[in-house]
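User: Just a sanity check before I run the rest of the batch. Below are the structure tokens for the first item. I only need the designed sequence back.
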């Protein structure tokens, strides 16, 4: 499963890229609002940090507006994927983008049927929102499982991206469900790295190493003293 970072924060992306685990980035207007500045500049900087897909979301509500915004994003870098919301206008825009050879990520998917329609319209990435479904007492992971099964059963040319990930368990479940991609907030990525027994083990090994080195140094000093007395 590919791991994307769900952020517009350049420093977070830089760190994940250094860890060697970054396969791409997703942004949205809310994530962009947290960093501000020019969205285009932010996208260019992200595309310099990863050669993987970088999703840039349109905000227009009409087809022509979506096409105008998406084409401008696509011109910024070859790895830009235009993020389009699931709606009637979005389907038409995704079909037109597909004709133009521009890749799209269909966002705000909450049912397998919405994902099926997006794939048929030509979206290359389908993004069901797991956490937001869990928030309203539904089971978001069911949509991931159903959509992965549909994509595989019908050999659809699209990848399922588990979005709206809230915690590390979501990542494990998405991987087990066969999601092709999961996009994670940086905090969840950090949580995945850590385990209290790993931290404890690192400390114990370091302490034992220091003790062993101190004992060896003391032994060397004692031996040197004995040599000095004998000579
Ligand atoms: C990803 O593409 C989505 O925009 C994102 O995962 C939404 O997550 P949220 O529900 O935490 O806002």
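Assistant: Here's the designed sequence for the first item:
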């Amino acid at each position: 499963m590919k791991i994307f970072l769900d952020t517009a924060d350049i420093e977070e992306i830089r760190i994940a890229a250094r860890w060697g685990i970054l396969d791409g980035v997703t942004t949205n207007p809310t994530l962009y609002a947290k960093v501000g500045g020019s969205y285009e500049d932010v996208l260019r900087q992200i595309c310099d940090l990863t050669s993987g897909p970088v999703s840039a979301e349109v905000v227009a509500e009409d087809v022509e507006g979506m096409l105008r915004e998406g084409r401008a994003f696509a011109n910024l870098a070859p790895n830009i994927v235009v993020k389009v919301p699931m709606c009637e206008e979005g389907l038409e825009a995704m079909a037109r983008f597909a004709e133009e050879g521009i890749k799209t990520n269909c966002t705000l998917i909450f049912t397998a049927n919405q994902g099926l329609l997006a794939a048929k319209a030509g979206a290359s990435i389908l993004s069901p929102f797991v956490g937001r479904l869990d928030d309203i007492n539904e089971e978001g992971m069911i949509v991931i499982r159903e959509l992965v099964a549909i994509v595989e059963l019908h050999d659809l040319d699209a990848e399922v991206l588990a979005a709206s990930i809230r915690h590390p368990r979501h990542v494990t479940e998405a991987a087990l469900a066969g999601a092709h991609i999961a996009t994670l907030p940086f905090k969840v990525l950090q949580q995945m790295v850590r385990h209290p027994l790993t931290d404890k083990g690192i400390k114990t090994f370091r302490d034992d190493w220091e003790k062993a080195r101190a004992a060896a140094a003391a032994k060397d000093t004692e031996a040197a003293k004995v040599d000095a007395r004998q000579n």
